[in-house]
Amino acid sequence: MEVEKGVPALVGSASGTIIEIGPGSGNQVSRYDRSQVTKIYGIEPTTSLHSKLRENIKKAGLSDIYTIVPCALQDVETLRKYGVDKEAFDTVLSVQVFCSVPNPKEMAAALWGLLKPSGTMIIYEHVKSGDYISSKVQDIDEKNLSFARQNILANNLKTRIRPFLTDPNDPLIPLDKLGLKSINFTICNPPFYSSPADLLSSAAAKSRPPHSTCTGSPIEMVTPGGEVAFVTRIIEESQHLKQRCQWYTSMLGKYSSLGLIVEELKKKGVVNWAVKEFVQGGKTRRWGVGWSWDMRRPREDIARGVSSSIPKHLLPFPSEFKFEIPTTSIDLVGSKICAIIEGLDLMWRYRAQVSTGVGFARANVWSRAARRQQKREAADGEKLVESEDGEEEVEEAALGFKIQLARESEGIAISIRWLQGFDCVLFESFCGVVKRQMAK
To answer: Dmax over Cα atoms in the chain, in whole Å?
Structure first.
């Protein structure tokens, strides 16, 4: 799992009675110097990794001196049953574990208590922690940032991409620190796993051997709480930033995370979101989630870009409604559509040459009460504006829609697309009125 030159040397320097924290599937056991080791206790609470761990212990010839302790460091009673007690060890070894624990200070104190007065603590990490004690025992450098800059230059992207070094306690979307008033979107490929053991457990459940295709390091793939906690943090930040970013997006590596994130979005009051499924090769799947505090709605294939296996309650309300009229004249259908829409108190523009119309309404103006009004109300201060993709919209309109006509084998297909708005009931009722009127 680790390819750094320093790790084998650190593990090889461990001596006497050793306690290894989070051995996982046994990546380090082959690196021990048997001539210096008396006994090894591996504290590994993830029992699904024990089989592979035993296999690697046997390969390393350590079966007679290596004991797997199936519990967490906090389980003092179980530790004592296995002989793990205070001031009993010559060496404490921890390789890339501190970066994934929520309370590194407490963990460091607990490990320190297990050491003999003359004992040695070996801790290897490769990212600076916000915690003071952890930061003092971690390998700190800017190699990652240096490699990022080199890749940017090599691909002629200097004018488009600017790497930015942040502190773990900084906002994930530091617009103020970057001096940005607003941005169009965010992209995130979060750390998928909550711990190195979680990562290895996931890999062990796959048909391919662990890390056969994954080259990510733990700092890229592991974070306290896993991807759900990481993306939830972005959701919370978006509550404050709101429309300073048009769309917030993130990848998800676990299907189980999708439902949790969508429910979190609903809980925070988000009504405009999108779910996408990505299929890599024949089996590997990933999911994308996007959300916006803006009124503009994405296309149906973007908002609900998933297979039928995804439960409907995780998907946003459909942004497109279709039905057919049994006639061959697209001009006749276009004229009737215009007659219906122009009879309502809303803004409407139809282009016959492309059989497409765009409209905006401030409220439900197609209800019986609204249609009783004889005079159309003037829209104070409202102007049609042209968006970047050529679609018209009205600021603060409660509903924006596009109606497109197309010839089909058995008639004229009418598609009503939801362009703008927060109220799905408003869009649904409008579609119902248009369909009923067209059927007359």
So the answer is: 97
Q: Compute the half-sphere exposure of residue 156: CA atoms within 13 Å on the CB side of its CA.
A: 0
The tally of CA atoms less than 13 A away on the side-chain side of residue 98 is: 31
Question: Cα separation of 190 and 156, whole Å?
Answer: 26
pLDDT score for 373: 61
Of residues 199, 194, 147, the one with CA closest to residue 1: 199
**Neighbouring-strand partners of residue 403:** 357, 416
Degrees, nearest 5: CA angle 244-416-362: 55
pLDDT digits (tens, 9 = 90+) for 324-364: 999 889 999 999 999 999 988 899 999 999 999 999 999 99
> Strand 37-43 relative to strand 16-21: parallel, antiparallel, unpaired?
parallel
Q: What is the tens place of the pLDDT at every residue in 238-266?
A: 999 999 999 999 999 888 999 999 999 99
User: Nearest CA to 183 among 164, 196, 201?
Assistant: 164
| Interior angle at CA 109, CA 104 and CA 113, nearest 5 | 145
Res 49: pLDDT: 85
Which two three-digit tokens encode residue 404?
Answer: 């497109």
Q: CA-to-CA distance for 19 and 11, rounded, in angstroms?
A: 12
Place of tokens 């049953």: 81
Interatomic CA distance for residues 377 and 373, integer angstroms: 9
From CA 398, how far away is CA 193, in angstroms rounded?
Answer: 41
The whole-angstrom separation of Cα 297 and Cα 302 is: 10
Number of neighbours of residue 313 by Cβ within 10 angstroms: 9
pLDDT digits (tens, 9 = 90+) for 107-135: 888 888 899 887 888 888 655 544 443 44
Distance separating alpha carbons of residues 305 and 299, to the nearest angstrom:
10
Report pLDDT for 133.
38
Identify each DSSP E strand in 144-299 by its residue range: 183-186, 245-252, 273-280, 284-291
Q: What's the confidence (pLDDT) of residue 385?
A: 44
Encoded amino acid at 428, one letter: E
How do strand 273-280 and strand 384-386 relate by DSSP bridges? unpaired
CA 372 to each of CA 343, 345, 375: distance values in angstroms, whole numbers, following the listed order: 11, 11, 9
The gap between the terminal CA atoms of the chain, to the nearest Å, is: 69
pTM of the model: 0.63
Q: Within the chain, which residues score under 70 in pLDDT?
A: 1-6, 99-102, 125-144, 196-220, 280-283, 370-394
